[in-house]
Structure formats: structure tokens, C-alpha cells
Design goal:
- The protein is an alpha/beta fold and about 300 residues long.
- The chain has a single domain, classed as Spore Coat Polysaccharide Biosynthesis Protein SpsA, Chain A, CATH 3.90.550.10.
- The protein is built from 11 helices and 13 strands.
- α5 crosses α8.
């Protein structure tokens, strides 16, 4: 029971990062030295994915180029004996991995993007990864953790995280019946509820393992929150027919769809980068020290 196919909805416009995303996909924004989409792909492959299905938009050719073979670049690096850089480029996509690109002609929401992947997924269970939710799984990548739950229970699994009640209106939120520590069966799921209407503070984040039944449900799902076809609404229908589990993953999530979350990811990934960590930590120490000096001077005056 291994999930072979992973879907990456990457057709969004990334308006919160304009003008940086005017001509380039938001999923190509780098965290230190790798684009967000590469972290997502590596996570999928670590969980056993062999077919990567990208649901793209008109301005997303850079994603296709990133995972394509760059003959001229590789030849130039080889000619200059830059072996390490050559290996870095060649390792972006391991051997045996297939990429499929599907155009989402109209931006009708996450549910519609997942529906666009149906011809490539077929009648198989599959995963969905949102690249702007960068998750540091610490000991094991988030999707690999979910794969273990899937293997044990053989049903759909959705990644969740506790959030402050003041933030629930930004998420799909679930009500669950406990199954095991950190694992519950979803009884109700609500997309972006008001604080007073939220069933809990357990929020859905950008990782899903789903059965193909979701496609039939998405076909008849009407536009919901934001005038879009919401994946959450189809999942709400699916829990009437099948067990869907909510899994509280182990690790840290960075919301790289927001500028602050993106900056946090760059700082924290920089602090553990094998080439940069020491110098970067020293720089941050000097920088924060400089910020504190005026405060100390002001206190001394008082």
C-alpha cells in the first residue's frame, strides 16, 4: 500500500508576493538555495511517489523548466569541472521519477485543481501537496508520517495542526472523534469558519492522502467560500461515505504563502544549512545585538 502518485496544485497567482511573482511562479521562490516546489517534490518522493502531477497555470513554465534536463547548463558545469554543482543540478529529480504537467485553464479553486489531475491519477489513491506549506518533519517528512497512518488504516488521511482560535477563519477546520494519540476520525469539516462557528482549533494544512472517490464528489461540488470549488466541501461529502482521518503531524510548518512565514522559513533553514549555518548564526547574533543597543542606551538614561 504505497502512494505512487502525488498531485501538486501550482496554478495560483501568488498575489501576496507581487511584484516578485509577476513573471515567476510563487512555488519557485527559494528557501535558502532550493525553490519551495523542490522541497515539496522531495517530500513526496521520500514517501514513495513515482509520478508527480503538476496542475499548472499560464505563468508556471519555470516549474516545468526546473524539473527538465538542462543540457547546456550541465555541459557547461562539466566543462568547468564544477562537479559538485553538476551533481546538485542532476539530483533535482532522481532517476525513475515521471513528471506530468496539466494546465488548469481557469483558476476555480483548490478543489478544481485537484479535479484537473483525475485523468493522470485514474483509479488510485493519491497524495496532494501544497508547496507553500513548507513542513520540516524533523525525524521524518510529513507525508512519510501520513503514509504510515495510511498503511495501517487503509483510508484517506489529512494533515492537521492546532492553531490559535483567532486564526481559524484562514483554514479548513475539523471536528474529530479520537482514534489514537494525534489521530482522529473526521466528523465535520468547515472551510474558513468564523471563530464562534469553528468546531475546534484543529486546522487542515497542505497535505492530503485521498481515495479516488474524491473526484466524483468534486465533479458535483458547487462553488463555496471565495466563489471557488473547495476541496474541503468535497471532503465534507466524503466523510458521509468513507472514513477520513485527521493526523496531527510531528514537525514545524512554515506558511510560505505569507511574507512573514516565508521569511521565518529562510532564517530557520539557513540556521541549519551545512554550508551557511555557522556564519549565518554569527551574523544574526551581531544584527540582533545591534538592535538591542539603542534599547539599552534608552534604559540607561532612565
Amino acid at each position: 500500500m504505497r502512494i505512487r502518485k502525488a498531485v501538486f496544485p501550482v496554478a495560483g497567482l501568488g498575489t501576496r508576493f507581487l511584484p516578485a511573482t509577476k513573471a515567476s511562479a510563487k512555488e519557485m521562490l527559494p528557501v535558502v538555495d532550493k525553490p519551495l516546489i523542490q522541497y515539496a517534490v522531495q517530500e513526496a518522493i521520500s514517501a514513495g511517489a513515482e509520478e508527480l502531477i503538476f496542475v499548472t497555470g499560464r505563468s508556471k513554465n519555470s516549474i516545468m523548466d526546473h524539473f527538465d534536463k538542462a543540457y547546456e547548463l550541465e555541459a557547461e558545469l562539466a566543462a568547468r569541472n564544477k562537479t559538485k554543482l553538476l551533481e546538485t543540478v542532476q539530483e533535482i529529480l532522481p532517476p525513475g521519477i515521471t513528471c506530468i504537467f496539466i494546465r488548469q485553464a481557469e483558476a476555480l479553486g483548490l478543489g478544481h485543481a485537484v479535479l484537473c489531475a483525475w485523468p493522470a491519477v485514474g483509479d488510485e489513491d493519491f497524495s496532494v501537496i501544497l508547496a507553500d506549506d513548507l513542513i520540516d518533519g524533523k525525524l521524518r517528512p510529513c507525508l512519510a508520517q501520513m503514509q504510515r497512518v495510511y498503511q495501517e488504516y487503509g483510508t484517506s488521511v489529512i494533515a492537521t495542526q492546532r492553531v490559535p482560535m483567532d486564526e481559524v477563519s484562514s483554514y479548513g477546520v475539523v471536528e474529530t472523534q479520537p482514534v489514537a494519540p494525534g489521530l482522529g476520525e473526521i466528523r465535520r469539516i468547515v472551510e474558513k469558519p468564523k471563530k464562534e462557528d469553528a468546531p475546534s482549533n484543529l486546522a487542515v494544512v497542505g497535505r492530503y492522502i485521498l481515495t479516488p472517490r474524491i473526484f466524483k464528489l468534486l465533479e458535483r461540488t458547487q462553488r463555496g467560500a471565495g466563489g471557488e470549488i473547495q476541496l474541503t466541501d468535497a471532503i465534507s461529502q466524503m466523510i458521509q461515505e468513507q472514513t477520513v482521518l485527521a493526523y496531527e503531524f510531528e514537525g514545524t510548518r512554515y506558511d510560505c504563502g505569507s511574507k512573514l512565514g516565508y521569511l521565518k522559513a529562510n532564517v530557520e533553514f539557513g540556521l541549519k544549512h551545512p554550508e551557511l549555518a555557522g556564519d549565518f548564526r554569527e551574523y544574526l547574533g551581531e544584527l540582533t545585538g545591534d538592535w538591542k543597543k539603542p534599547e539599552k542606551a534608552e534604559k540607561a538614561k532612565k
